[in-house]
Task: structure prediction
Amino acid sequence: MNVKRFFASNSREALAMVKKALGPDAVILSNKAVNGGNEILALDGDEMDNLVAGESLSFGAARKPVNPTAKAAPASRPSKLVFQDDAAFDDEALPPETLEAFASRNSRLHEIDPVFARPAVQKPPVETSAPAVVAAKPLVTRPADVKPAIRPAVAPAPQNLQSPQELEKLMSEMRSMRGVIESQLSELVWENMQRRDPTTSVLLRRMLSAGFGASLSRQITENLPPRQTQESAVNWAKSVLEKNLSTIADESEVLDQGGVFALIGPTGVGKTTTTAKLAARFVMKHGPGKLGLITTDAYRIGGHEQLRIYGKILGVMVHAVKDEADLKIALEELKGKHTILIDTVGVNQRDEMVAEQIAMLTNAGSNIKRLLCVNATSTGETLMDVVSAYRGKGLAGCIVTKMDEAATIGSALDVIIREKLRLYYVANGQRVPEDLHMANKKLLVHHAFKLRKTAGGKHFQFRDEDLPLLMAHAAQMSPEELSLG
Result:
């Protein structure tokens, strides 16, 4: 056989080359993708017809004819049987084996490209009295190593679409599995880290015991420089915390620059006492004539009386307001004052009145700076809830209160660092004005790491075997944006 090879960039061009070179009677033996295009192995139709006819006739001669009266096919019969018109020959004169071989070849050409096949008029079957002939196997078979010819693209069977509820359930299960796997991997990582570098575990326990959150503690310990002693590791962590804790440079930003300051926060956080402390510090420096005091605590019985008492002692008049209109009037009356302090009513952070209070202060017309009072005794989760509720369109800063009542202050510092709040003052008692101090980064961080001997403190300390599980949970939290330099 004279098999020819055709190569083109795609199968369509290759088939066109075959048709042009060998005609429409060409037989495709192989069609496969190779480097940079498609390769087709083809055979001239005449050679295939001769081969099929020769093998068919020799095979038919070897068999005994089923019908003794049937005539043998003449050897001089034309070999182009597939593409000739039916008038050119009589199919009834051919042996069944030959017809079957031709039908097999015609079927393969239909699979390759419809342009190679011409419709043929099917003749009705000839009724004979001879017994049925068992169909013979095709005489020309496709080589085992040759890829099948190009078949028309068949659309994939439509898949059964799941309902949105089933898809959501599946996604939920996948997320749950992912969380479990990530948690287990994180546990293994931290167990390995504890074995390799015990200093990391010591620093992590110190930070957690000081009240810092797991996420912040994890990020700092993961960035700990190598070959640190326990003492140097703690000092490095302190320096990172100091670098990321924002405070005012000096008290002149409040007392000398002046402006309107409103102290906000939940009930019982110490807003009124802190307002009195700030007022006393201002009067001691600038005198009572340049200070204005306003209270919005008109809901509680005698709510504004405490500030009135402090104002009377300081020689400053206190204006009580109930709504936004009253606040605008009071601010207009006090517009000549150097500094105005507003003591607001305490509202639960989940109360709708928080939004109303923020709107009142925002719409009052003056550039009111809101200072959030942060309770040092609260947990980190509670403080995050408070900051989220009171933030509004922006906080000028915060004041940490009740420092004297807190066993640890790490949670307060953690939230201030996480939320990038500016720390103005810290308050550690009820005395006015002695128990109000400027925020000092170094002292605050040192105070946070200084463990206190409390009755129940041992129940809240962490063991080495607790750390991997805790850090695995912290790994799923968003990392803090820290400056580690």
Remarks:
- The radius of gyration is 46 Å.
- DSSP finds 16 helices and twelve strands in the chain.
